[in-house]
Design goal:
The chain is α/β, with parallel strands linked by helices. It folds into two domains: 6-259, Aspartate Aminotransferase, domain 2, CATH 3.40.640.10; 261-393, Aspartate Aminotransferase, domain 1 (Alpha-Beta Complex), CATH 3.90.1150. The chain has 15 helices and twelve strands. It has helices at residues 11-17, 43-51, 65-78, 89-100, 115-124, 140-146, 169-178, 191-194, 228-242, 248-259, 261-280, 299-305, 320-330, 360-365, 382-393, and strands spanning 82-86, 106-110, 132-135, 151-157, 182-186, 204-208, 222-226, 285-289, 312-317, 335-336, 346-348, 372-376. A seven-stranded mixed β-sheet has the order 1-7-6-5-4-2-3, sandwiched between helices. β4, α7 and β5 form a beta-alpha-beta unit. α1 packs antiparallel against α10, α3 packs parallel to α10 (248-259) and α13 (320-330) crosses α15 (382-393). The protein is globular. The relative contact order is 0.13.
């Protein structure tokens, strides 16, 4: 299975087939290699593998066949030369920083990112002498003005969490490269099925595999995808040394998730668009944020850059935090949890969950209002989702 040029195959085929190496048992499903270490043929063989002169498995902290299959499959889907898997999405982002940055470097980051990402840059990278400048996602003049000679990379999510703002990846890639910086894109919301940042000029793509790559909320994991030379030189040594390792079992679960990724992303997007239209018609909704809606400020860009709007819809409820909490608490079908990308629809209040560790000033700068509600639309019948929301509001 590894002799194919996966660029000749469609994304659905890559999601099912890429990266698999059958053992002598000729298994049809991907096996789980539940082992911490590997046996060498001789002392010389062990020495050559540890030194990197000969490829092969060494220790499952950084070499495992099941994890490698997941890495090769995701790389094939993203169109990258190399993928490195990690224990979580945040571990993947941290690895980009630990691998690429040194004291005195600088990062430019969008304000519209996951709250923990902001804290990672703001509180932790800063402790090691790496400051971060935060800018509005769609203010390209601000991106360009924020870059310094020591800026190592620009970081963004598109669509953003939770307002689904869209950035022009190609434009930001040009801005970064003109100044000698890299562009790092979090592609968690859309996956390579709906968006291919590397094709648009990004240098590195990061994922929380916990979300849509899994698809059923079972495991925690992350990944970094990009050029072979860049990842091998700067990112892989951090995995080998620091050990934020994806487990073989989790990698196997993600492999099973990838097999249905194309079907699921299509269904998530269709349901989300239908729900977004319904929400726009509700009198108790102040505003709806969804790239598939013509009312979205970057709708035209989304049509050019993405295959569809994805599965996340956010909206502001009239009445602020009190009304948002009351709506969330009154639902019966939807799951009150901050995870997303699940087959089950989830609902959360970003200002007090995913972005709750940010200061009120930082939340305001990111546009996270107290009345904002985020729904990650699942695979249920969409009329049941809207009825649950309508019933939750009706007693008011």
């Amino acid at each position: 299975m590894t002799d194919f040029d996966w660029n000749d195959f469609g994304p659905e085929t890559r999601a099912v087939r890429a990266g698999q190496r059958r053992t002598q048992e000729q298994e049809h499903s991907d096996p789980i290699f539940a082992t911490s270490s590997y046996v060498f043929g001789s002392a010389a063989d062990a020495a050559e593998r540890f030194s990197g002169k000969v490829p092969g498995n060494i220790y499952s902290r950084f070499t495992n066949p099941t994890v490698r299959t997941f890495e090769e499959r995701l790389a094939a889907l993203e169109g990258g030369e190399r993928c490195i898997a990690f224990a979580s999405g945040m571990a993947a982002i941290a690895a980009v920083g630990m691998g690429l940055l040194k004291a005195g470097d600088h990062v430019v980051c969008s304000r519209g990112v996951f709250g923990n990402t902001t804290i990672l840059f703001q509180n932790y990278f800063a402790k090691f002498g790496v400051p971060t400048t935060f800018v509005d996602l769609t203010d390209y003049a601000a991106w360009e003005a924020a870059i310094r000679p020591e800026t190592r990379f620009l970081f963004l999510e598109t669509p953003s969490n939770p307002l689904t703002q869209i950035a022009d990846i190609r434009r930001l890639a040009d801005i970064a490269h003109a100044q000698g910086s890299l562009l790092v894109v979090d592609n968690c919301f859309l996956t390579p099925i709906l968006q291919k940042p590397l094709e648009l000029g990004a240098d590195i793509v990061v994922h929380s595999a916990t979300k849509y790559l899994d698809g059923q909320g079972r495991c925690i994991g992350g990944a970094v995808v990009g050029r072979q030379d860049l990842l091998d030189k700067d990112i892989y040594p951090w995995l080998r040394t620091g050990g934020p390792t994806m487990s073989p079992f989790n990698a196997w679960v993600f492999l099973k998730g990838l097999e249905t990724l194309g079907l699921r992303m299509k269904a998530h997007s269709e349901n989300a668009l239908q729900l977004a239209h319904w929400l726009e018609s509700q009198s108790w909704v102040e505003r709806v944020y969804y790239p598939g809606l013509p009312s979205h400020p970057q709708h035209d860009l989304a049509l050019r850059q993405q295959k569809s709007g994805g599965g996340v819809v956010s909206f502001e409820v009239k009445g602020g935090k009190e009304a948002a909490w009351k709506l969330i608490d009154s639902t019966r079908l939807l799951s009150i949890t901050a995870n997303l990308g699940d087959a089950k629809t989830t609902i959360t209040h970003p200002a007090t969950t995913t972005h709750g560790r940010l200061s009120p000033e930082d939340r305001a700068a990111a546009g996270i209002a107290d009345g904002l509600v985020r729904i990650a639309v699942g695979l249920e019948t969409v009329e049941d989702i809207s009825r649950d929301l309508s019933n939750a509001f009706s007693p008011w």
